[in-house]
Amino acid sequence: MALAPWRWLLADQVGPHFLDDDTQPVLLVEARSLFAARPMHRQKAHLVLSALRHRAAELGDRARLVRAGTFRAALTGLGEPVEVVHPASRAALAFARTVDGLTVLPPRGFVTDRAEFAAWAHRRRGRLRMDDFYRYARERHDVLRDLPAPARRPRARTPVDVPPPPPIVEDDIDAQVRRDLDRWADEGTRFTGRDGPRRHPATHAEAQARLTHFLTHRLPAYADTHDLLRDGDRQLAYSALSSAFNSGLLDPEPAIRAAERAARDGAAPPAAVHRFVRGLFGWREFLWQLYWYFAPQFRGAGWLAATQPLPEWFDRLDADAVEARCLADVLAGVRDTGWAHHTARLTVLGNYGLQRGWRPADLADWFRRSFVDGADWVMNATVIGMSQYADLARVDTRPWAFDGTHVDRISDHCAGCRYEPGVALGDTACPYTGGFEAFWHRNRERLAADPRLSAALAGRDDPKRRDAVLAQEDKRGSEAP
Predict the structure, then answer these.
(1) What pLDDT sits at residue 303?
(2) What's the predicted TM-score (pTM) here?
(3) Which of 14, 125, 203, 406 has its CA 20 to 30 A from that of 451?
């Protein structure tokens, strides 16, 4: 009788849906090289190791956990057939195809098949928009078909009272992970951000408990706090489960169906369910498919005037160097937790880098390393394509550029900030307002057809003002605002 092949579970494949049955032997690998190339957030490194080790403990005698310098060293000499579910990055897939005796299985953890997406994209003749894909996918997979379209609701201007998620309780595995990372740091491995306690799920049980809590207690308020920023409340009514989905702890389709049931049972309003499902079944699926559909690199990375390196204060998550309250609060959240919700990422972090012409690839790499949910397939499209508008409008039709008055409308950070959101020049000029005008002036020939940007600059385009703003922002340069 032929031996059953080992199922190699990668660090982003640690959920139960990556196994076929309860008997197959499982291989898990800790490769030190994964943490050595570029400084990774300490909490992301902890989460990766904790998830692998917890999964090995759950599987018991079925699992073999190999610790090695590289993945190739771990696989060399195994002497038995091995298979792996399609990796989530091109680099990992290319490596897998060079390993003798390693079989690559189809992808899991996504609803839409890649061939199905490619056929849809071919019919679109290059015009690929998330909204169009989302409508197609909902009809194709019968998602939210009988749920009424959400009515427009005003944003909540006061904090929404939602209970905190179930706490993460660290155990002996986490304690050993922390000791190992401390030792690695002493040996020269570099990390960014601050150490735990662990805030994100490392097991399927923890992730499922968080998802159940979100669907019951936080989903009803999700639409009310969507697209808002609140000083001191960095989670609002979000689930903060992106790392659990991206690490494979949760399968998105059951979560989508559970949200549908919440709407049908009257446990959550349609507006909230539509928002949640749109993010999980719309944007997440769309970004995954775009990553594999397009060539290995997004073309047009120099389309906008974006050639500046990341400043050191930003790369090191030095929130204490920043006076602008919105940026200081969001950057401190990344430093302390390795996470921020999507509005903070786009409107505060990405918007600031876009205005200053930071290199899109550098910023995407920063998001990958600094966020616990960071992955190539997510950050290439959302940062390079959507946030930094460097892919010739493949992901979005306009750059996510906003001035300080927009930040003021959606947040409470501007109250008490030394900068004034409506001021572009002078000592109290908001770096987002001055930065927005400078960004538009530098790229005006490329962006002249964008009606939103043109309207936002109306009355602020006389030559003297333009020259003063450009001179001011050039002088600011890479200094922390």
Answers:
(1) 62
(2) 0.91
(3) 125
